[in-house]
Design brief:
There is one protein chain. The protein is an alpha+beta fold. It has a domain of 109 residues: Immunoglobulins (Immunoglobulin-like, Sandwich). It is built from two helices and seven strands. The strands form two sheets. It has a four-stranded antiparallel β-sheet. Strands 1-2-5 form a three-stranded antiparallel β-sheet, with no helix packed on it. The protein is elongated, with a radius of gyration of 56 Å. The N terminus is likely disordered.
């Protein structure tokens, strides 16, 4: 072989070896620049990367105390201690005395239940046959009382004379009458209803 051909072959071999070193491949067994492994491929240590989210136990919620519900105060009997105010006046029919076939003397009591004096007190009285104000009205009248101090009572006496038709209506109601009284004063007005046996 000629000397020029030998030189050419040696140069080609050296060039090939240089290319192999630069590429990190085969000829000299060298390793080039390492490349990142694709996801899901084994790592050099042989442990596959996890594709699941971390399993950290959830943090327990801190319980909060509910606000207490207020309860109404009660008295010794277990009922509400708040008293319900009564009417400003009280009216009661005390007696219905017979004064004739169709006549009755009515005696009633009016009481001021307020903590203050009531003035200009008047009572409008209506009397109905039967147990209620839905029956026939058999009598009506007005009584002037005037002044009533706190807690004071006044007695009202009226003679009630019925017509024959009104007396029959009461008799057909088994002798029962209903007295409705509207009490008016300088500060308030109240209507009270009472039943009474007039027979």
């Amino acid at each position: 072989m000629r000397t020029g051909a030998v030189v050419t072959v040696v140069c080609l071999v050296l060039v090939s070896a240089g290319v192999a070193i630069a590429l990190g491949t085969g000829a000299l067994g060298g390793s080039g620049t390492p490349t990142a492994a694709a996801p899901g491929t084994p790592t050099p240590a042989g442990t596959p990367p996890s594709t699941q989210p971390p399993t950290t136990p959830p943090t327990a919620a801190t319980p909060t105390a509910a606000a207490p519900t207020p309860t109404p105060r009660t008295d010794a009997t277990g009922t509400s201690a708040t008293a319900t105010p009564g009417p400003a006046f009280d009216f009661s029919v005390d007696d219905l005395a017979e004064c004739g076939e169709t006549c009755r003397d009515v005696e009633a009591t009016l009481t001021n239940n307020q903590d203050e004096t009531a003035t200009d007190v008047t009572v409008d009285i209506r009397m109905y046959a039967g147990n209620g104000t839905g029956g026939e009205r058999v009598w009506e009248g007005t009584e002037s009382v005037g002044r009533l101090a706190a807690g004071e009572s006044a007695t009202i006496t009226r003679r009630v004379e019925l017509s024959t038709a009104d007396a029959i209506a009461v008799q057909q109601a088994d002798g029962w009458v209903t007295v409705e009284a509207t009490v008016e004063s300088n500060v308030t007005a109240v209507t009270l209803t009472r039943r009474h046996d007039a027979s």
